[in-house]
TrEMBL record, chain A:
<feature type="domain" description="ABC transporter">
    <location>
        <begin position="8"/>
        <end position="238"/>
    </location>
</feature>
<dbReference type="Pfam" id="PF08402">
    <property type="entry name" value="TOBE_2"/>
</dbReference>
<feature type="region of interest" description="Disordered">
    <location>
        <begin position="344"/>
        <end position="364"/>
    </location>
</feature>
<keyword id="KW-0547">Nucleotide-binding</keyword>
<dbReference type="InterPro" id="IPR013611">
    <property type="entry name" value="Transp-assoc_OB_typ2"/>
</dbReference>
<dbReference type="GO" id="GO:0005524">
    <property type="term" value="F:ATP binding"/>
</dbReference>
<dbReference type="InterPro" id="IPR050093">
    <property type="entry name" value="ABC_SmlMolc_Importer"/>
</dbReference>
<dbReference type="InterPro" id="IPR027417">
    <property type="entry name" value="P-loop_NTPase"/>
</dbReference>
<dbReference type="Pfam" id="PF00005">
    <property type="entry name" value="ABC_tran"/>
</dbReference>
Automatic annotation (TrEMBL), chain B:
<feature type="transmembrane region" description="Helical">
    <location>
        <begin position="190"/>
        <end position="214"/>
    </location>
</feature>
<protein>
    <submittedName>
        <fullName>ABC transporter permease</fullName>
    </submittedName>
</protein>
<feature type="domain" description="ABC transmembrane type-1">
    <location>
        <begin position="65"/>
        <end position="255"/>
    </location>
</feature>
<dbReference type="InterPro" id="IPR051789">
    <property type="entry name" value="Bact_Polyamine_Transport"/>
</dbReference>
<feature type="transmembrane region" description="Helical">
    <location>
        <begin position="234"/>
        <end position="255"/>
    </location>
</feature>
<feature type="transmembrane region" description="Helical">
    <location>
        <begin position="100"/>
        <end position="120"/>
    </location>
</feature>
<dbReference type="InterPro" id="IPR000515">
    <property type="entry name" value="MetI-like"/>
</dbReference>
<feature type="transmembrane region" description="Helical">
    <location>
        <begin position="132"/>
        <end position="154"/>
    </location>
</feature>
<dbReference type="Pfam" id="PF00528">
    <property type="entry name" value="BPD_transp_1"/>
</dbReference>
Amino acid sequence: MTQAQPAIRLTGLTKEFGAVTAVDHVDLEIAAGEFFSMLGPSGSGKTTVLRLIAGFEQPTGGVIELFGEDVTKRAPFDRDVNTVFQDYALFPHMSVLDNVAYGLRVRGLGKKERNERARRALASVRLEQMADRKPSQLSGGQRQRVALARATVVQPKVLLLDEPLGALDLKLREQMQVELKQIQRELGITFIFVTHDQEEALTLSDRIAVFNAGRIEQLGTPAELYERPVSRFVADFVGTSNLFDPEHSLALLEREGHHSLRPEKMTVSAEVQHGDGVRNAAGTVVEAIYLGSGVRLVVDLDAGPRVSVLEQNVRGRVHDDEHGDRVVVSWHDGDVVAVDGTAVGPQNPTPTASIGAMLPGTAG
Amino acid sequence: MRLSRPFRITLGVITTVILVVVYVPLLVVLVNSFSTSTSLTWPPPGFTLEWWGKAFQSAGALDAVGTSIVVALVATAVSLVLGTLISLALQRFEFFGREAISLLVILPIALPGIITGIALNNFFRTIMGVPLSIWTVVIAHATFCIVTVFNNVIARLRRLGLNLEEASADLGAGVWTTFRLVTFPQLRSALLAGGLLAFALSFDEIIVTTFTAGSGVTTLPIFILNNMFRPNQAPIVSVIAVVLVLVSIIPIYIAQRLSGEEQRR
């Protein structure tokens, strides 16, 4: 073998729930050691892909390979991947230590060794003093770290994380993002991270796949996705964008087709700016929103569309434009990105995880 | 919520009357078990512990208690196993006819006892050709005892969801290991509550028992019925009735406490 096997290879992966196609012929390769994110709105199929890789769902079609080995038909307990669940799924009747040691216990390790290894894993997430507590006695962030320790103690080849930070408040979330990245670097294993939070995905990932209606809309590094979105959907979902339809593109940008322009690439001033590739458009300020780190101006351009402009708060200079002020919006032609104008596809409802929901009385 | 004073008083009176109607007769039985009158005249002419002593020496009564306990224990054990299995099947798997089976499992508790009794009597004797015995009673009781176990377990399974089981499988545990280490510990209190109710149901059942018991099989309720109108036995029957009430109430009380605690968790 000359080239390293990808950690995960999905070929034509498809999952249908009745008439609903949750995952639609997804092809994907994830390299070993990569921090890979699957980003998308709810119902876009990202969680289903994760559950297919974990083995909780059986695909309707396609192949899942783990380091070159076909695991499509294997049960979850027969796959070298582990999952950190959205609600952590810690066993409530077991102590924190027993939770972490669980994977080693079912592999038949002796009590002494598994407890030792579990303690070491707990120490790596700085929770060794909590070993004897029950999960219910921990805070959300601590539970999250226990779930992480429990999944990593068995040394999986790939770690799947299903919106693991979704239940945490903002401060804790940012702190856990840093920790996740550190843990991933230390362990050197592949992380597949599912999130609907584009900022989280941009911060953490080596590469991101943006999901839309069961398909991968765009695959690339955070910078590629942000700077060169291929479609209106990606431009709009990853960060905020000013989107121009063909009519406005022609009028303002003198280009054919749909285009996207990021708010922070535009500036607002009193007069027309000059320079190579600089374009200007006059307009009226509709709204000025102070953000602390900057100001978001909403400007109605005379040529038609309403645009959002982000101005940085440099040296305390806060823009004093007010509602109704006449301004000139300027941008560099090179910052305009041509995008695919296909309308955003319909999103599927999230499939119910429990069959219980289909029992009489609870149907819905 | 605020209620007007007259309304509150009315509701209080209604509640009191209902509770009196339900529980005073039980108290009468309790008092009668200490009565010196053998024909249970009211008010009791005097009090004695004679009947309590006699009851605990009566071979027939002790025998009946023993039979009832055996029947209740075995019926409960059978219900626990079958009830858990059917709950798992209906909650964790999808198959044709699932809804129908779910209904069929619950139905026996709603069926009039006399129908179940006649039907099973017919089934055992005429169709299967099995002589009635203590085991036919056990089977008959299990048909409705399963329901209490089933209801408790399926409610718990539904609330648990699949998350913990998926986490267990994800960490490498097979189906049986997952059940043993994760699912079963989560079901324990539901099984205890369901089992206690099943035991209480079986222990004081009489209608189905009458139709399915072999000639030598006398459970406690049957013993009471048989001795109720026999001269000089009435006070002993009162003693047994009191014991029966206690034995039935205690498990139900514990079961209620258990499910209450679960809900508060």
